[in-house]
């Protein structure tokens, strides 16, 4: 019998980033990667991330969350999924201020009407924090390129870790580059020993960025909250924008505020319930 058989699930999304919430607090068990991959099949329960909730280990927090990509790998951060679990837990408890733990630290979430704000913590810029394969003095622009060697299409990305690794390539027009083409080789480039989420970013103005993301362990998604945070701080570090920006993704807008007082990244955007149900043997069958 599949480990997850008969477990209830809630399908949600954050700006079209497809999220499955598995509340495992009553009877915790690890999500087998092969069962995650089986569920993610297009005709079963396609998702970008599973947000699996476990019993809290710190007083005052609602749950310890583990984040699983559709390829079964684990991530330290998921901005859109964090807003989803905040809305889920608010629905259960009636509270509008929720705290979660994750491998990357504490996630403080506040709900104000349709706007959910998650404190995504402090970004890290050291080469070993990203991580990169070797020392790099300035992570605002690293030596990496894609496309023909003599005429690279993408070059000199900024890199940052916001609980997960991100590389951001600055381009004139995000629609003029085929991210699905370059995403896989960049995600798996040996310079990124833990792989990386790959973004194309277009500066629209000092307070506005357009963004497309090739997610590690997933592929192209409608939105990626952690990439929006990573891009906002990388743009501010380069002086391309201020510290508060609207990030427009294919699925919609997020507002990122890189707070001056403590360098925390506050991400504000919506989340949505879609439907719920129970995982069946058939959904988990053929797991490989
Ligand atoms: N969708 C997520 C990002 C998942 C990150 C994951 N693809 C990884 O780092 O492995 C977000 O909204 O932040």
TrEMBL record:
Residues carrying the site annotation Could be important to modulate the pK values of the two catalytic cysteine residues: 166, 215
Enzyme class at the top of the EC tree: isomerase
One Pfam family here: DAP_epimerase
Catalytic activity field: (2S,6S)-2,6-diaminopimelate = meso-2,6-diaminopimelate
Location of the protein in the cell: Cytoplasm
Active-site residues, record numbering mapped to chain: 78, 224
Assembly information from the UniProt record: Homodimer.
Similarity-based family: Belongs to the diaminopimelate epimerase family.
EC number of this enzyme: 5.1.1.7
Protein name listed in UniProt: Diaminopimelate epimerase
